[in-house]
Amino acid sequence: MNSARILPTSLALLSLGAAALAAHCAQPVQQTVFRLQDPEAYALGTVTVRRTDTAAPTAETAAEPAAPTPAVDAGASADGAVADASVSTPAAPASDNAATRTVRATLDAQHAAIARCYDEVLSTAPEALGSVNVELAVNGSGVLTRTDVRPEGAGGLPQVRPCIEAALRTLRFSQIPAFGAVIRRTYTFVNPPVEVRLAQPLRVQAPARNARPAEAPQPAAAAAARGVLAEAEVAPQLTLAIPALQACYATTLRRAARAAGDGELRVTVQPNGEVQSSTWRATVEPIALMGDCLGTAVRAVRFRNSGTGATIVATLQFAR
Predict the structure, then answer these.
(1) Strand pairing partners for 4?
(2) How far apart are CA 121 and CA 127, in angstroms?
């Protein structure tokens, strides 16, 4: 074979190989990145916390995440079970997996302690209301490595933070993945008014003729009771208004000499013990028309500053 023909062919092949090698080297180098798995995130929704002496609650369950989600996706808030944490804990949604139920149960066990934290704040800041966002970082052994408590409320609610931190710091979780977990929950603190219903009616008789004009009720000595208003202290205070109620009845009798009957008086009391408003319901006229006068009479009564609003319900009986 002619060597003169072979040489150009070999040079052409070498040129093609060099071009292919150059093109390959020009491509970006693909790197493999290894990283640790993100912590599991448990978004446990919202729980409503009331003071510990609130009546038995009603629980409402809303949808929550079915299972733990990656931490990067768990930041969105999720509405959870809503219950009175001072009395009972919210039921776990059926969609929870075993690990989530275990985490939820561990956190629920501290509901009573967190409610007591709210009680302590209410004793000095009766208007404390709002939410507290909690985020807990837990290692693979179930031990807390970070506790983030962020109050978002008014009226002194931020004072609850140290107590909640102390209550949560003792928690130990189980079934936590080896790479740890992030647990989030929001506590909403509310202080609803109580209803105090007097068991015995207040009997209001027509004042005797030539009786002295009714005087404004004088506040009774400060009661040693604590917490919300109760019937035992409300009833004596309300009887202070009887002279003024008798004056209202006397005015009615001057228009209708045989007027008599009973009705329901509802008195709205502010957390500081002042009467805010009242409503009067009666079926017999002209007794039913006494609402304005009765409201003025009870507004002079002052109840104990309990830090919690109240609605007092009393039956008034007007008879000659």
Answers:
(1) none
(2) 9
Place of tokens 């290692």: 139
Rg from Cα positions in the chain: 36
Distance CA 244, CA 225 (A): 27
pLDDT in tens, 167-194: 999 999 998 888 899 999 999 988 888 8
Q: In whole angstroms, what is the distance from residue 214 CA to residue 299 CA?
A: 14
Instruction: Name the one residue in this structure whose structure tokens are 């302690």.
Output: 113
On whether the pTM is more than 0.90, the answer is no
| Token pair 């275990």: residue | 102
For residue 153, what are the CA distances in angstroms to 12, 84, 133, 157?
A: 80, 19, 11, 6
